[in-house]
């Protein structure tokens, strides 16, 4: 028999969006539960350097995440750990089912974020944790003085390539085309980094190695020729998939699985909100996540009062 509880609001996720929502709910003196299954701070924990968050000219992701956690502690906001499996709409209200308990609530703020997209090539799953990593900050020290490949062309790929260049002998940056989605500032910085080599118009085909990564097979898109790069590690940064499996029963997610919300962050289901990277939007940044969390919490506070 699962434990049953009741609260006014359930916030799912303790990244920047969920933490901000919790802070605003606490200040409004609204009863809520902050749920997460991972470390507080979300993806911020896996980011190397952050240079675009107000108040910090430069800060590491783990340091900023710890600042978030310290504020939760100072405000006496606990994090309940659990994996949300499904949400049932009871019109009004919701029943949130986790792996540990059942929570009855009037409002839900979904701030569950995203998870790394896989390359889906041979060798990736088998060598995950044995040279294949999705977190340069977490695992970069394991590759000191070694050669690694970063796959991707967005901000994350460029940021992590730059971070890894400070630890490794060489970084190959593999991208499927000439242009980049990343900010031009990051591209130029990576191009000026001596031990980062750009290899463009290529597609990863296989990660090879017995017990550890020994190389990556790439295919030139223009010539279809394949070659093997000898590397000790592979870091894919090719985008994110939304953590929205527990919402598939609702007609409020797009084809990619992102949550469709209105200006007040509420979906078409009364009382169900989205905040942060889970939302269908153009810009996914720490500052936009905190924005979403504040808007959702304030909207709920107006309805509760």
Task: Describe what you observe in this structure.
The radius of gyration is 21 Å and the shape is elongated. The chain has helices at residues 16-27, 61-74, 136-139, 155-165, 184-191, 286-304, and strands spanning 3-12, 32-36, 49-50, 59-60, 80-81, 84-89, 94-98, 101-110, 114-116, 147-151, 170-175, 196-200, 202-208, 215-220, 226-230, 233-236, 240-242, 272-274. The chain has 305 residues and is of the alpha/beta class. The protein has two domains: 3-115 and 240-304, FAD/NAD(P)-binding domain (3-Layer(bba) Sandwich), CATH 3.50.50.60; 118-236, FAD/NAD(P)-binding domain, CATH 3.50.50.60. Strands 1, 2, 5, 6, 7, 8 and 18 form a seven-stranded mixed sheet that branches. Strands 12-11-10-16 form a four-stranded parallel sheet, with helices on one face. A three-stranded antiparallel sheet has the order 13-14-15, with no helix packed on it. The model has no long low-confidence stretch (mean pLDDT 95). Helix 1 (16-27) packs parallel to helix 2, helix 1 packs parallel to helix 6 and helix 4 packs parallel to helix 5 (184-191). It is built from six helices and 18 strands. The protein is 22% helix and 29% strand. Strand 1, helix 1 (16-27) and strand 2 (32-36) form a beta-alpha-beta unit.
């Amino acid at each position: 028999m699962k434990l049953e509880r009741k609260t006014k609001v359930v916030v799912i996720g303790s990244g920047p969006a969920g933490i901000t929502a919790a802070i605003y709910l606490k200040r409004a003196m609204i009863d809520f539960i902050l749920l997460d299954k991972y470390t507080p701070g979300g993806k911020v924990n896996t980011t190397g350097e952050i240079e675009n968050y107000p108040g910090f000219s430069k800060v590491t992701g783990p340091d900023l995440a710890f600042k978030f956690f310290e504020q939760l502690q100072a405000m006496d906001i606990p994090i309940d750990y659990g994996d949300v499996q499904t949400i049932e709409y009871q019109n009004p209200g919701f029943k949130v089912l986790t792996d540990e308990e059942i929570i009855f609530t009037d409002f839900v703020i979904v701030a569950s974020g995203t998870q790394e997209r896989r390359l889906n090539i041979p060798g990736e799953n088998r060598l995950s944790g044995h040279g294949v990593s999705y977190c340069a900050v977490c695992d970069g020290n394991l590759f000191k003085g070694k050669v690694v490949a970063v796959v991707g062309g967005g901000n994350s790929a460029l940021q992590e390539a730059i971070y890894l260049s400070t630890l490794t002998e060489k970084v190959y940056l593999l991208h499927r085309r000439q242009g980049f989605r990343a900010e031009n500032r990051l591209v130029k910085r990576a191009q000026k980094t001596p031990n980062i080599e750009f290899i463009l118009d290529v597609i990863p085909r296989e990660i090879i190695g017995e017990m550890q990564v020994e190389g990556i097979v790439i295919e030139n898109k223009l010539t279809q020729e394949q070659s093997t790069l000898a590397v000790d590690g592979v870091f894919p940064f090719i985008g994110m998939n939304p953590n929205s499996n527990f919402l598939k029963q609702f007609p409020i997610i797009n084809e990619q699985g992102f949550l469709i919300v209105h200006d007040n962050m509420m979906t078409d289901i009364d009382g169900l909100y989205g905040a942060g990277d889970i939302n269908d939007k153009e810009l996914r940044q720490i500052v936009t996540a905190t924005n979403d969390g504040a808007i959702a919490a304030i909207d709920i506070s107006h309805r509760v009062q």
